[in-house]
Amino acid sequence: VTLFEISTPELTARVLDYGATVQALLVTDQDGKTVDVVLGHDTIEGYETHDGYLGACVGRVANRIGGAEFTLNGKMYPLAKNDGQNHLHGGLRGFDKYVWDAEILEDGVKFSRVSPDMEEGYPGNLAVSVTYRVENGALVIMYDAKSDRDTLCNLTNHSYFNLAGGGTALAHELRINAESFTENDENCLPTGRLIPVAGTPFDFRAAKPVGRDIGADDGQLAIGHGYDHNFALSGRDAAELYSPESGVAMNITTDMPGVQLYTANFLERIPGKRGALMEPHGAVCLETQEFPDAVHHADFPSPVLRAGAAYHRETELTFDVR
Ligand code: BGC
Asked: What distance in Å separates the CA atoms of residue 17 and residue 224, rounded to the nearest whole number?
């Protein structure tokens, strides 16, 4: 396993070929101090044994598939039930648990692998790559894939952001460019209904602290012990996270239709990087994605990737200090 460092004066990204993982993102805060704004592990064993997907590329299909099966072209494909009766984040051994091939670029690294036909139950040999480039203060993530059979594809990066470099993330201010979010059932699967955010704890149209409404008496928040929901994005400008403590801001743009806000509700209290104990709500995940369980909802954007078609998605994380 190899760690690659991509650096500009504004941003250093450390990425691993194991899981095409973002292991560290180093920026300078308002006091001139270097802060690492993502959680992770110091050892490869940490990544192998922990199932929090810290910083990893998640695939072939990120998020949940209800009943751990889907039907495509009239054929039923059973998948692993690794989240109760449902399928989560690509299955028992998802893209996060493989060593990818690496190609060094002038300003980044391109990780590739071929996910073989029927790997974790998904049809089609899928040639997939994730490219990380650093442009000034921005980490540009490019996802590309092509399959030789019709399949499903939904790739994301599962970074846990803490823009203060530690402690709780509940004081982080968050804005999400979304008018609605997908309602969850008791298993965190979309019911199919889109709920307008107006007048709910899910209204992040104007920036507010992540923790302001997280304890509100709200059925949706009770299900996942905090936010664990997909927001239907209104445009490329997806979200912005800011830590008043460090002054570090992160802006997210993407061409994906959704973003999962997950407030690390189930993060285990185990040591992460530099021995610092991780804790629930100690980070915010903003996973740009197709809508969860989209294969079972005809009115969600389709997660189907047709044979020979090019899957290309981009997410850009831009850091600055205010
Ligand atoms: C999911 C959570 C899950 C977490 C870790 C998130 O993307 O939405 O429900 O607990 O990943 O697996």
From this structure: 31
Q: Whose CA is nearest to atom 6 of ligand 1?
A: 262
Distance CA(30)–CA(200), nearest Å, equals 33
Task: Please report, for residues 85, 148, 180, 192, 307, the alpha-carbon distance to residue 229 in angstroms, rounded to integers and kept in the order given.
Answer: 19, 32, 11, 13, 30
> Ligand 1 centroid to 124 CA: how many Å?
26
| pLDDT tens-digit series, residues 3-12 | 999 999 999 9
CA separation for the pair 312, 300 (Å, rounded): 18
Which protein residue's CA is at the shortest distance from atom 8 of ligand 1?
A: 228
| CA atoms of 9 and 13, how far apart (whole Å) | 11
* pLDDT at 23 (0 to 100): 98
pLDDT digits (tens, 9 = 90+) for 191-210: 999 999 999 999 999 999 99
Which of 87, 89, 158, 281 is catalytic? The answer is: 158
Terminal CA-CA length for the chain: 36
| Protein residue with its CA nearest to atom 4 in ligand 1 | 52
Ligand 1 centroid from CA 262, angstroms: 7
Concerning whether 287 is annotated as a catalytic residue, the answer is: yes
